[in-house]
Amino acid sequence: MAATGDVLTSQGYISHHLQHLQIGSGFWALNIDSLLVSVVLGALFLWGFRKVAATATTGVPGKWQCAIELLVEFVDKSVKDVFHGKSRLIAPLALTIFVWVFLMNLMDLIPVDYLPYGAQLLGVPYLRVVPSADVNITMSMAFGVFFLIIFYSIKMKGVSGFVKELTMQPLNHWSMIPVNLVLETVSLIAKPISLGLRLFGNMYAGEMIFILIAGLLPWWSQWVLNVPWAIFHILVITLQAFIFMILTVVYMSMAYEEH
Known about the structure:
- There is one protein chain.
- It is built from eight helices and two strands; from the N terminus they run αββααααααα.
- It is mainly alpha-helical.
- It has a domain at 57-111 and 132-256: Four Helix Bundle (Hemerythrin (Met), subunit A) (Up-down Bundle), CATH 1.20.120.
- α6 (135-167) runs parallel beside α8.
- The chain is globular.
- Residues 1-5 have low confidence and may be disordered.
């Protein structure tokens, strides 16, 4: 598929599919496609769960209600196994993260040319539809979790307790304060960076493999590799959503607990 209707080389095809629809430039550039797809998927998540909640029955539930109830029970059990404090935020936060990230990852299973080609017919030159393969999206979510960690650390331990945690651990002596501060600061900053980059790296690699298969093989032979990779990728997208959720819960549990 080419943006101008011409046939692209394999290198041009791959480059075209890795290009975001942007406004602005440099640091202030916004990836409109990632933002739009993220918002649409988030709205779809809210609408679906709200509809089930409004029509839930105590009798024989429908298939959609059963699926939602199983998902909620799974997330609730996962949170209870990891988080031992009391908070009305953690379980809804975990459910939101798991479902939203899963839906973002799920977009990777749509054939790479379908939505971009439809967008091209409407005059949109570029369209990437896997938000979790955009480092700006994954790092934004990770830093959102990071700010919650800081907020609840200060809320539960106070400013003095939070500062003491950074300066008196793991070496509990006043002379080790500079060393402790460096170690704990690096550990604190590493949490959102590893959280966001792990999701981005896995989903970018998965998207790249689909693009390489589509760009380098004839259309009639692509299914030989696409189908097995898509089946395996179902496990990847689910696992990455679960990892993002469970690490968020672990980090929030650490923010609530005293050493």
